[in-house]
Amino acid sequence: MRSFYGFFVISLLSVTKLLDAEERPNFILILADDMGYSDLGCYGGEIKTPNLDRLAENGLRYTQAYNTSKCWTTRISLLTGLYHHRSDRNFMNTALVGEVLKPAGYHTWWTGKHHADFNPYDRGFDHFSGFLGGAINFWNPGDRAREGEDEPGWRAVYSWAFDDKVIKPYNPTKEFFATDTFTDWSLEWLEEDQVFAKPFFLFLSYNAPHWPLHAHIEDIKKYDGVYNQGYEAIRNSRYRKQIHLGLFDEKVTPLSEADHTPWNELSEKEREDEALRMQIHAAMVDRMDQNIGRLIGRLEELQKLENTLILFLVDNGASPEKPKRGYKNPNSEWGSVGSFEAIGQSWANAVNSPFKKWKIQSMEGGICTPMIAHWPKGIQLSKNSIARDPCHLIDVLPTFMELAGKQAEYPNNLPKLDGISLTSTFSGKKLLRDDPLFFQFGSWQAIRQDQWKLVKRKKEPWQLYDLSKDRTETKDLALQFPDRANSMKKKWIEMASEIGANVSN
């Protein structure tokens, strides 16, 4: 049923030469958390992201890169090449990317967010430094206040692992800020590669810009007044820029219907608070981009950027959540260690422009996010190239396997990979996929087959969209094309049964 297309067949001449010469690429996989589709400058945003914009300009942007709509399920699929339904939160019945690449001689490193209970150091990674949970206080993830500071807002105390050492709680020094620190650890490991001269795989798993809204004051100040204009203005401005950048065709991608509170209906205090929320969110994305710039700069110094495949992607669409659990000091300045805020539904709708809905849902705003590929030796397309074929994070491991060569080992006793290699897109060719893309999380179900998408929630009727003519899901065609809808529903049930998804809804 699943395609294994292209796994050990190198489609690119340049890739073939690299493998023949044993000049296999390094891999850096960078994952952002709960970021909106239009947050990056190269995807339409006003946030300052010059480093990711540079990778996009000299690499490849994907307009239809899909995820699972949820943090932990995305990480399963991203690191295993399987739909998450084949496993569980402990990644059972899978081989992680580290386990696959180590036999091929790769150093394997992972830093940042994990969102599972096991230690990655025990699953094929030479180094792991990070936390085994979902959301942390960016300033202080520990269990108590540090001298001279407020009690940490959002004090979820998770286990942290540093290689084979697992500790709980982790109480870092005041120099700690998650986005900066995760990058620091990654840069330290790059020096190790200089000693052993091996190809490497680095998974840099940021938790930014996931709530709580925490950022450096100097980054927050960059965006003073920017968001005072409100949701509508930002959403419309981003959409116009997306059209200008060539990401979408206005004729087939109208801006979806707004799903936010009208700005002029808010009180002055509410508008001030809402603008500040988005201001801090922007600062978090900005800081992440700064740190990616640090990483790029070090790769250039080490003369490794040319032969390093960098993949940047996002785990799901922006989050509408305003969690009420946890602690916050009402007197703490927003963005500081004692605060606990989130952007909420209205801003989530705006930053997911042009799509509707958000995280957890299977409309495009929940499951479609930015993806950038940069590899000067292997991607030799014109500047600002765009890949428009649908792809999925299940395709990442097959891509790494193909480029790592036959020494990369995938166990025969595990399910065959659900994904396919993305290398054809590096030369501007189409992706050839046998099966539709499958989605199911919670009460949401969807299937993407060619340009058609079938989607529903709970017991609601299935909705059918032709995304080649209606990218933003504005016109349900289920009644107009009942045979197609029924055929795709049947295929969804077939795939759900085969991969172990929940069909009770």
Ordered list of secondary-structure elements with their pairings:
Blueprint: H1 13-20, E1 26-32, H2 50-57, E2 60-66, H3 71-80, H4 97-101, E3 107-113, E4 127-131, E5 160-162, E6 165-167, H5 178-196, E7 200-205, H6 217-221, H7 231-245, H8 268-301, E8 308-314, H9 344-351, H10 364-367, E9 368-374, E10 385-387, E11 391-392, H11 396-404, E12 437-441, E13 444-449, E14 452-457, E15 463-466, H12 482-499
Parallel strand pairs: 1-7, 1-8, 2-10, 2-11, 3-4, 3-7
Antiparallel strand pairs: 2-9, 4-5, 5-6, 8-9, 12-13, 13-14, 14-15
Question: What does it look like?
Answer:
- The chain has 505 residues and is an alpha/beta fold.
- The protein folds into 2 domains: 415 residues, Alkaline Phosphatase, subunit A (3-Layer(aba) Sandwich); 70 residues, Arylsulfatase, C-terminal domain (2-Layer Sandwich).
- The chain is 28% helix and 15% strand.
- The chain contains 12 helices and 15 strands.
- Strands 1, 2, 3, 4, 5, 6, 7, 8, 9, 10 and 11 form an 11-stranded mixed β-sheet that branches. The chain has a 4-stranded antiparallel β-sheet with strand order 12-13-14-15, with helices on one face.
- It starts with 12 loop residues before the first helix and ends in a 6-residue tail after the last helix.
- The N terminus is likely disordered.
